[in-house]
Specification:
143 residues, Immunoglobulin-like, mainly beta
Length: 143
């Protein structure tokens, strides 16, 4: 899928070119449109093992330990993604209604999952996760 990507840190903007990168602070001149910035889930063709290890599986929970929030958990893949030094998930970007709201950085010592606590109970949460071997993968869920 075509997307706007920061040439410094790799952040993918879903809401146009920002004045500065919300992750690394790079100016808007460092952003460019990339033809294959991330892979969208193609549920008709989602039978391959690669897709099942990469497309974020999203779960919404209103019964969180933090009062007044909705939790969105992104688990990397229907089949758990490996977390090896040579092949792992590096980070997970969270967006609410296409606006960036948070980042979780992962290392091989962690499980391939991340949770974000959101104040609102309405909107569409999008997630882009990065595999250091296979690139960025996208999914979304309505809350």
């Amino acid at each position: 899928m075509k997307g706007i990507v920061c040439g410094v840190c790799g952040f993918v903007s879903l809401d146009g070119i920002p004045e500065v990168c919300p992750v690394c602070g790079a100016p808007k001149e460092k952003f460019s449109e990339i033809e294959d910035a991330y892979k969208m889930p193609d549920f008709k063709a989602q039978t391959g093992e690669s897709e099942k290890k990469h497309i974020p599986a999203l779960k919404v929970s209103a019964n969180c330990n933090v009062e007044g929030c909705v939790c969105v958990t992104a688990k990397m893949g229907e089949i758990e993604h490996p977390m090896l030094p040579e092949h792992h998930i590096t980070h997970v970007y969270f967006y609410l209604d296409k606006k960036y709201i948070g980042l979780s950085q992962l290392t091989p010592a962690l499980k391939p999952a991340a949770t974000i606590h959101i104040k609102t109970a309405k909107g569409k949460v999008s997630v882009i996760e990065n595999c250091n071997v296979h690139g960025n993968w996208y999914n979304e869920i309505e809350i």
